[in-house]
Amino acid sequence: MAVQPPKVFLERMQELLGQEEYAAFVASYDNPRFAGIRVNTLKIDPAAFREAVPFELRPIPWCPTGYYVEEQVKPGKHPYYHAGLYYIQEPSAMAPVELLDVTPGERVLDLCAAPGGKSTQIAAKLQGSGMLVTNDINVERTKALAKNIELYGVRNAVVLAESPERIARAFPYFFDKILIDAPCSGEGMFRKDEDMARLWEPEWVQKYAGMQREILKSAAALLAPGGRIVYSTCTFAPEENEASIAEFLLEYPEFRVVPLESDSCISSGRPEWLTWLAERGEGRSYPPEVGAQTAGCGRLWPHKVEGEGHFLAVLERQGEGTARPWELAEVLDNSPTERDGGSRGKRDARHQTSRSRSGAGRDPKAVNEQEILESWRVFAQEQLQAGELPGEPLLFGGNVYLSPLAKERLDGLKVVRPGWYVGTVKNGRLTPGQPLATALSPVEAARVLDLAASDGEAVRYLKGETLQIEAERIRCREDVNPKGYVLVTVDGYSLGWGKWQDGLLKNEYPAGWRWT
Q: Using the 8-state DSSP alphabet, how is residue 140 labeled?
């Protein structure tokens, strides 16, 4: 066996699966792990992608934008990766977002999001409309989350580093769709990550089951009536899977499991394992109608699919939700009735009043903020050729963002990014940010330099080198000359900024993003 899972884990799986299926399950640890990439349709459609990339691609059955690739091709070592055309992702991990059934214009929350692969998948389905709030309670992990949101050209996302409970207090019944890729004991990742197998402890199962059930409660407070939650783990333990769903259904009878179609890829849930836990004194007995619903959950098994182990459950809220006592403190101020303009209108009126007072000189900080935001507007007029970009301009941490949410909605929360980062202002002039470049299409920039992936020039740019570029190569808006900020692209896809003058392109690609 190439990977050595813990003995106590194997003994338990043998008892759960039975001898015949267990033999196939154990044999899967001798198989190679599978690598995948997923097309970022914010930047390129799948047909054009298949034509452009030099890798051999094989479709992943449960994700129409996902493809198997051979690990040895190293897809992270290509300029198209740095252009955000695809995300490198374990194939089974692509399934949960497909089941979330996101459509443009919706409000979507990714509650346990780092490092951000599933958030970029959600953003691609939103296609720039609606909003994505993507969160991870671990501040350190949100660094990778924010970078992936930026690299993949997401314009309508807010990045938080908050507990689910605090988000629920700020946004009760606000979201149409919620993804919970729950923290778990990680048993399904043993083949992919040998350290996970080495470090695993049996006590993890109960520890994570408790965390998952609290997260699900918060999600219930966040979901709008008629909305959908997709709950997923990368573990096999029934305590973290069927039992977590059964506990949730007991406490929230307004929810129902949406049964997944059992096919050659997605296997049914295992309600009989709830009985197994109860008989061993490791779980409770559930009403038959609750246990039966867990059969509609799904499992991806490594001995049945080309991917790692995953559990999937789709939950939909039927009718109106009922607020729990701990949710009530801020319901009135943050009610989702802002959809009809009521609450938002009141907040906007207060916001406009404060602005008018600041304009009268009563609030120097607010006056300075207006001047900074005006610098952004001047930059956009001079350096872009887009119409008005989406989002509300706001100042946060000294930087300018375009946010899908009013600034007041984020008060009191740990905000990593309140929206699309467009730049920072010094001495009255805006320096554009890298995320502004990665989310722009070439037709939205006043100056564009296109590099080719085939001749090495794009790699030199990605390494941070200054390039010698003739003026004729800069494609300019009619009323501007080549001197100034240039959007650098590779084969027509945005990479970052350069600053051109007298035949030289000063490289503005961030040091932390560079090709290594």
A: T
**Cβ neighbourhood burial of 66 (10 Å; 0-12, 13-18, 19+):** buried
Characterize the bridge pairing of strands 223-233 and 175-181. Answer: parallel
Q: Is 133 strand, coil or helix?
A: strand
Q: From the CB of residue 58, how many other CB atoms can be counted at a distance below 10 Å?
A: 13
Mean of pLDDT over the chain: 91
Please, which residues have CB within 8 angstroms of residue 32's CB and are 6 or more apart in sequence? none
**pLDDT tens-digit series, residues 192-237:** 888 999 999 999 999 999 999 999 999 999 999 999 999 999 999 9
**Inter-residue contact 406 to 348 (CB < 8 Å):** yes
Report which of 183, 178, 22, 160 is spatially closest to residue 107, judged by C-alpha positions.
Answer: 178
pLDDT digits (tens, 9 = 90+) for 125-146: 999 999 999 999 999 999 999 9
- Residue 141 and residue 115 in contact, taking contact as beta carbons nearer than 8 Å: yes
Mention every residue, 6+ apart, whose C-beta is less than 8 A from residue 364.
none
The 10s digit of each residue's pLDDT in 414-437 is 999 999 999 999 989 999 999 999
200, 9 contact by CB (below 8 A): yes
Per the document, the length of the chain is 516
> Which of 455, 454, 437 lies closest to 446 in space, CA to CA?
437
What single DSSP character describes residue 422? E
Contacts of 87 (CB under 8 A, 6+ apart): 37, 38, 40, 117, 120, 121, 148, 152
Q: Contact 133/108 with Cβ under 8 angstroms?
A: yes
Residues with a known catalytic role: 234
**The dihedral of CA 343, 345, 349, 352: what is its sign?**
positive
Angle, in degrees to the nearest 10, between helices 364-383 and 342-359: 100
The rounded radius of gyration (Å) of the Cα atoms in the chain is 25
295, 258 contact by CB (below 8 A): no
Q: Which two tokens stand for residue 486?
A: 């240039």
Parallel, antiparallel or unpaired: strands 58-60 and 63-69? antiparallel
- Residue 355 confidence (pLDDT): 39
Tokens of residue 420, six digits: 């699309």
